[in-house]
Design a protein that fits this description.
Oligomer: single chain
Strand order of the largest sheet: 8-10-11-13-12
Bound molecules: adenosine-5'-diphosphate
Number of strands: 13
Strand content: 15-25%
Structural class: alpha+beta
Distance between the termini: 52 Å
Helix content: 55-70%
CATH architecture of the domain at 5-170: 2-Layer Sandwich
Radius of gyration: 53 Å
């Protein structure tokens, strides 16, 4: 089953924290316990020393008497702390014996300690052991003491309480860290998933055709910002494409409307007998069908070039040879307008699709002829540098208004519409030029001055 980012992130964080807390508790417990038992062992050693020295202090060297009252006090205090003592004088007579003093209390205390230690340290296998120490007053041996305690070490009630509190503190910290981490994980996951969910919602809307939608929420996560950025970019591109598609349909309709309505009205007039079908009138109808045919043809060519899988059949082409052929094919048009066409520059070769590059030159050359004045000059200048080969086509014709130059490569764009109906242009020629050149990885650029002439530069990469 697929899980949400929310549950994935929070559960991962919870597991990590749980593991960390468990490891920390285990380690701290282990180390604290080890330190603590060492500490206890030292304390016990110290305690037996204290017992021995304070017992030694109860002997009066002048009277040679023991202060039995204090010995009793020391014995009882030690008993409560888990040390069962028996004090002898120098002759070995018993001065004080905890078990003789209060047998039942000793039993209770011993059992108590054994029980607690067995529960807390089951592997310790401890038992009561006895040590016997001599008692001194100065250098003089004045007696001895036998001390029994639970060995190798034992914890008294205070020690147990201390350990228990330490454990409680550790568990509390662990639980608090766990709760905090779950909350933090939940909040983090929510912050991560919210922009993703917004993006999902936006893509759904884009899929439904709402291209105006934009995600404007700034997150502080770079990848998420990149994601929303790409979605916005996608929406903008689709919006642009949609606009172009609508524009194209409207443009095609617009381009077809004029010739078709001319045809319709002329033919209606002839069918209704209002007009005689003279040769002239039939010729004008024919011209309109030619215009429609040319438009459809151009659109078809453009569609083929713009289709993504355009396959270029590249070969090495000698530019002068190709240009010469084109000039010859336009001989009639050139002589009709008394135009001169020339070629200059090196005889360079280009690597390109021959048919398509011919199309580029034909479109540019026919424009140059169309927009030249009588007795004008058209010049093909071949260019070559380290990385590029190409040509400039110059004419000294009517030129293009400066503000219109940026648009002439767009579909159906015709500078100065009125003059174009006369020249029969559809406004697609340069769009085809640009598409072909770009399919070759090259560039095309136009420069022009109104009434002085225009130049079109085409450059293709050598590799
Ligand atoms: P068309 O079929 O109308 O010539 P193009 O796409 O070939 O369409 O050209 C777009 C417009 O650019 C033309 O309508 C014309 O106004 C302008 N143009 C193109 N080439 C030239 C040129 N050599 N001299 C002047 N104007 C030109």
């Amino acid at each position: 089953m697929k899980r949400s980012i929310n549950s994935r992130v929070s559960s991962s964080i919870a597991v990590i924290v749980l593991l960390t807390v468990a490891i920390i508790s285990f380690l701290s417990n282990y180390f604290i316990n080890r330190q603590f038992t060492e500490y206890i062992a030292r304390q016990m050693e110290l305690k037996t020393q204290v017992i021995t020295s304070s017992l030694g202090g109860q002997y009066n060297t002048f009277t040679r008497q023991w202060d039995l009252h204090y010995i009793n006090a020391i014995g009882m205090t030690s008993l409560y702390e888990g040390y069962i003592i028996k004090v002898y004088d120098a002759d070995g007579n018993t001065l004080w014996d905890a078990q003789a003093h209060d047998m039942s209390l000793c039993k209770i205390i011993m059992e108590d300690i054994s029980e607690r230690m067995r529960i807390k340290y089951p592997q310790l296998e401890g038992e009561f052991i006895s040590t016997k120490d001599s008692l001194y007053r100065g250098d003089k041996n004045i007696g001895s003491v036998s001390i029994s305690y639970f060995g190798p070490f034992f914890l008294n009630e205070n020690d147990f309480r201390f350990l228990k509190e330490l454990n409680t503190i550790l568990i509390t910290i662990g639980v608090a860290a766990l709760i905090l981490s779950i909350i933090a994980g939940y909040l983090l996951a929510k912050r991560l998933s919210k922009p993703i969910l917004n993006t999902v919602e936006a893509t759904k809307q884009i899929a439904d055709g709402n291209y105006e939608i934009r995600l404007d929420e700034e997150t502080n996560t770079r990848e998420l910002d990149m994601l929303t950025g790409s979605i916005n970019h996608l929406a903008a591109s689709l919006q642009n494409l949609e606009m172009l598609r609508k524009q194209l349909t409207a443009d095609v309709a617009h381009e077809l409307r004029t010739p078709i309505s001319i045809l319709q009205s002329h033919m209606e007039a002839m069918m209704d007998g209002i007009w005689q079908p003279t040769n002239e009138r039939l010729q004008s109808c024919y011209d309109e069908t030619v215009r429609i045919g040319k438009l459809v043809n151009d659109l078809d060519k453009l569609a083929k070039i713009e289709s993504e899988n355009i396959k270029l059949e590249k070969s090495d082409i000698r530019l002068t040879e190709l240009i010469n052929k084109i000039i010859i094919s336009f001989e009639k048009e050139l002589s009709d307008k008394k135009l001169v066409a020339r070629i200059t520059g090196p005889d360079a070769r280009i690597r390109a699709d021959g048919d398509r590059i011919t199309q580029v030159m034909v479109n540019l050359f026919s424009n140059a002829i169309k927009y030249s004045k009588e007795e004008g000059e058209i010049l093909f200048e071949i260019l070559e540098n380290n990385d590029q080969t190409g040509f400039v086509l110059r004419d000294n014709g009517i030129g293009i208004p400066e503000e219109e130059i940026p648009y002439i490569f767009e579909r159906f764009y015709r500078a100065d519409k009125s003059r174009n109906r006369l020249t029969g242009g559809s406004g697609i020629g340069l769009t085809i030029v640009k598409s072909i050149v770009e399919a070759h990885g090259g560039t095309v650029k136009a420069e022009s001055k109104l009434n002085e002439g225009s130049s079109f530069t085409v450059l293709l990469p050598k590799k």
